[in-house]
C-alpha cells in the first residue's frame, strides 16, 4: 500500500475504562464524537464507565464496541496483547453477544495491512 493510503479507523486497545483507536479517525469523526471521542496526547480514546469487572459481561463496553462495529470500525489483531480487540470480539461473537460480522485488521508492516471480515 502506498504512503498516500491511510489505515482505516480501528480499535487498537481495549482497556478497563477506555477504547483506544488508530488509523483514519477523521473519516468516522462525527459518529466517534457522538460516542465521546477524546484526544489524549498522541492517542484517540473513547472513555466508558466500567459496569462489570469481567469485560465479557461489561454491558457498557459491549454496547460501545457494538456501536463501533456498526460504524465499520475494524478491530486490531495483536499477538502482543493478552486479549487483542479482534480476539475480544471473536469471544463475544462466539458467546452470541452480538449477531453478525465484524472486521479485523492485521498489520504486516508499515503501510501494509489486511482487513478480514469475521463471521
Give an overview of the whole structure.
The structure is a single chain. The protein is globular. The mean pLDDT is 93. The longest helix is centred in the middle third of the chain and has 12 residues, at 59-70. It has helices at 29-34, 59-70, 85-94; strands spanning 10-14, 18-22, 38-40, 43-47, 74-76, 102-109, 112-118. The chain is an alpha/beta fold and 119 residues long. It has a seven-stranded mixed beta sheet.
**Proportion of helical residues:** 10-25%
Q: Largest sheet, described in full?
A: 7 strands, mixed
Task: List low-confidence stretches.
Answer: none
What is the number of domains?
A: 1
Q: What sequence of helices (H) and strands (E) makes up the elements? A: EEHEEHEHEE
- Could you tell me the number of beta strands? 7
Strand order of the largest sheet: 3-4-2-1-5-6-7
Structural class, by secondary structure, is: alpha/beta
Shape: globular
What fraction of the residues are assigned to beta strands by DSSP? Answer: 25-35%
Cα-to-Cα separation, first versus last residue:
25 Å
Total of DSSP H or I helical runs spanning 4+ residues: 3
Radius of gyration computed on alpha carbons: 14 Å
Mean pLDDT: 93
Amino acid at each position: 500500500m502506498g504512503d498516500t493510503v491511510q489505515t482505516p479507523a480501528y480499535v487498537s486497545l481495549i482497556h478497563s475504562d477506555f477504547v483506544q483507536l488508530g488509523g483514519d479517525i477523521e473519516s468516522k469523526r462525527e459518529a466517534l464524537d457522538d460516542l465521546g471521542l477524546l484526544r489524549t496526547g498522541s492517542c484517540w480514546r473513547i472513555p466508558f464507565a466500567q459496569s462489570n469487572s469481567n469485560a465479557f459481561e461489561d454491558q457498557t463496553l459491549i454496547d460501545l464496541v457494538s456501536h463501533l462495529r456498526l460504524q465499520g470500525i475494524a478491530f486490531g489483531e495483536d499477538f502482543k496483547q493478552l486479549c487483542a480487540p479482534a480476539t475480544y470480539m471473536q469471544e463475544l461473537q462466539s458467546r452470541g453477544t452480538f449477531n453478525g460480522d465484524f472486521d479485523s485488521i492485521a498489520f504486516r508492516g508499515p503501510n501494509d495491512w489486511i482487513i478480514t471480515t469475521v463471521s
